[in-house]
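Justification of resources, computational component.

The compute hours requested in this renewal are based largely on the per-chain cost of generating structure records like the one below. Each record pairs the submitted sequence with a full structure-token output. That output is archived, and it is also reused by downstream analysis tasks.
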Amino acid sequence: MKIRRLVLGVFLVVPLAVAGFAFAGSFDGAKSATARFHDLDQAMAAGWNVKVADAAGLTCIAQPGVGAMGVHMLNPSLVDGTISATEPEMLVYELKSHGRMKLVAHEYFVLQSAWTGSSPPSLFGRQFDVTGEPNRYGLPPFYSLHLWAWKPNPSGILTPWNPRVEC
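The structure output for this chain reads:
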């Protein structure tokens, strides 16, 4: 009986572990493409130079009781109705002590009016979130997806709010 459980365990655990490694590895290209942007000056020089604010003027985006996203730096040239895993429209930074900014996530962003696909966009096997109108940013409806590439998120690597991020 012990041997049967051991064999069954191996047949279940090994495929799940392999699938987990494969899923985690699917973010490698996105991470390597943005690794140099831990230096905010390099990110700004490369085009991520617009600090995004919500309609209230807040630049560090948080949702009480859920977590935060952080400070979004937009590359306007990438807001073109297309998506690329290695070119997120926004880089997300966490404000640290002494005003230092730490790269924590990517945000992929597409206005619904610019998206030509027959269904919402998706990356990494996950469909983008939909934000309708009205919204806290004063924007028309859009699709977005966060990738917590540089800071663990206990809510999930592809979820918008991270309870470990503070504004």
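The longest helix spans residues 2-25. The two ends are 54 Å apart (CA to CA).
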